[in-house]
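ugh ok fine here u go
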Amino acid sequence: MKPMSRFEKKFGKYTIPNLSTVLIACYAVGYIIQLINSNFLYFLTLNPYEILHGQVWRLVSWILVPPSMGNIFTTLIMLYFYWSIGTTLERTWGTYRYNVYIFSGMLFTVIGSFIAMGAGYLFYGEAWMLSGNAKVIFSQASLCFSTYYINMSIFLAFAATFPDVQVLLMFLVPIKVKWMGIVYAVIIAFDFIGGARGNFMTPLGAIQLDFSLFSRIAILSSLFNFIVFFFTSRNRIIRSPKQMKRQYEYKREVRRSTAVTKHKCAICGRTDESHPELEFRFCSKCNGNYEYCQEHLFSHKHVL
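structure:
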């Protein structure tokens, strides 16, 4: 793939290798917290209201809030699946591009949460200005901004990069990833069109708020990195497994053809690369830098 200009050279040293492993480890910590005390997760969510009131750790800690948890078996399968496709993307794109993709999705999500807060005050400002309302409302609305759509963006990127790769659905049915990507896109569309409402008690009575505003902004912001990727880089990095194999074989042949050998026998032409078991020595009686393998060191005719 084409280098990503000077930015990769300048910031590439700050990338995190095996980023998918780090993400899965964060989810594992979140699942442990959820099993021990699920209420503690509310202190980790991406809540812009609390961030502006001093709880700045939420800018990072929301990554520990894992996607919804099923039974232990399905959870482990889900974690392995996302680790597998994320690792494949990192190997294909390179560590730098994969880091940029993931961290841009996280950054857009954080920005989206503050945009949602501003939009909420704009549309529901009168009700939210009452004492205590915003704190409770944003505590619930912050759940919309989670790692769920970050994982979704990883899968969509994988489906766009390797559309013809087959996976076993439910371990039985072979299906191409591009069809699963279409199903995921439909699910996202339903999530975007739909929404949830919440009822809250205020000093003036109960109010009902439409959380569709938050969920829609969360979807757009969390998947904005995929939108950018799809319209800017898609045609340059989509490759089938056969193309990847051909490229790998080509690079291997190039490395072999351009490899610089350190030792080469002047008689038989064998090198330390083709025959690493041999020893090579220079002859002090030959006029010039003539090197011979152990079989011809004492039997060759000296060059005068």
